[in-house]
Design a protein that fits this description.
The protein is α/β, with parallel strands linked by helices and 299 residues long. The chain is 42% helix and 23% strand. Strand 7 (180-181) and strand 8 (188-190) form a beta hairpin. It is globular and about 70 Å long.
């Protein structure tokens, strides 16, 4: 039994699809299918049920996957301890962040980190905060930037910064007739009640942004029209910038652009906390701690 074989099985369970797992593992779908058939034959038990929608673990498969995750987690723990003996000259950190926020934060974070620790490799994992929390619980991440609050992680997260929830639209959108200048600072704010008649572009409910948007609507007592309700935050913001509709975005992702306006939700704005979250483990690698410290300095 080799570690790479365990990774193959865990990835199949995570993706629920041979094709998606093969893409994630950078291998041919036929090769992964052949591996699974041979591996199950050697074990003498079926690990996955094939369905029209993909694959799902059998009872034996679930037992195998749970133990494979534990083995891989312990291997990474030992590897981190060995790397630490090299005094931050080598090592690996598996770092999670949302795709949307990561596009704005990761480049400068990794540049600063690489300048300090050129021998340490950072492997990026993209996912929304809920998915990242799940991976932290499983122990498959060393560190992640997530939006609070968390629901399952027992390890206390470390506050990083506040991030404002904004509306993004084109300067010619009719919502601008309701925009009001802030008394202090620059920019504009809008009362969500005044936006009730305008079309929105929303992220799915199982994302932090989608959940916050719907909660803000509930507090404002409005149900605005929304015809695209499962769009990624990045795509929604891009569409909002053209004036197609109103979309929510984060202050950390609000790139200054000509003809684009970002509106605060209410005069005081609406904010969420970003935090550095770690898996529950008795040992945290020096490399992961160094990346966390760099994030606090840079971000």
């Amino acid at each position: 039994m080799q570690l790479k074989e365990l990774r193959y099985i865990v990835t199949l369970a995570d993706e629920g699809s041979v094709s998606r797992a093969a893409d994630r593992l950078y291998m041919a779908q036929s090769s992964l299918s052949e591996f699974l058939q041979q591996y199950e034959a050697e074990l003498g038990v079926s690990l996955f049920v094939r369905t029209s929608r993909g694959v799902r673990p059998t009872a034996a498969g679930s037992l195998f996957v749970d133990n494979a995750r534990t083995i891989l987690k312990h291997y990474r723990l030992v590897q981190a301890q060995l790397d630490d003996m090299a005094d931050l000259k080598v090592g690996t950190v598996i770092f999670g962040i949302s795709s949307f926020r990561g596009r704005h934060m990761v480049p400068r974070l990794l540049k600063a980190f690489h300048d300090k620790y050129p021998g340490i490799q950072v492997k990026l994992v993209e996912g929304n905060s809920m998915a990242l929390e799940e991976m932290l619980v499983e122990g498959s991440l060393d560190l992640a930037i997530v939006a609070l609050p968390l629901t399952r992680l027992t390890q206390e997260p470390e506050f990083l910064k506040k991030d404002e929830i904004l509306l993004v639209t084109h300067k010619d959108h009719p919502v601008m007739q309701y925009a009001r200048p802030r008394e202090k600072g620059t920019g504009f704010w809008v009362d969500l009640k005044d936006t009730a008649g305008f079309e929105y572009i929303l992220s799915d409910y199982d994302t932090i942004m989608g959940r916050i948007a719907r909660e803000e609507f509930r507090k404002a007592g409005i149900r605005p029209p929304a015809f695209n309700t499962t769009i990624t935050a990045d795509l929604a913001a891009s569409m909002g910038r053209t004036g197609i509709g109103l979309a929510f975005t984060y202050g950390s992702c609000a790139d200054p652009m000509e003809d684009v306006v970002y509106l605060s939700l209410g005069e005081k704005g609406t904010w969420l906390d970003l935090a550095l979250a770690r898996p529950y483990a008795a040992y945290q690698s020096r490399a992961a701690r160094a990346l966390a410290e760099t994030a606090k300095e840079v971000l």
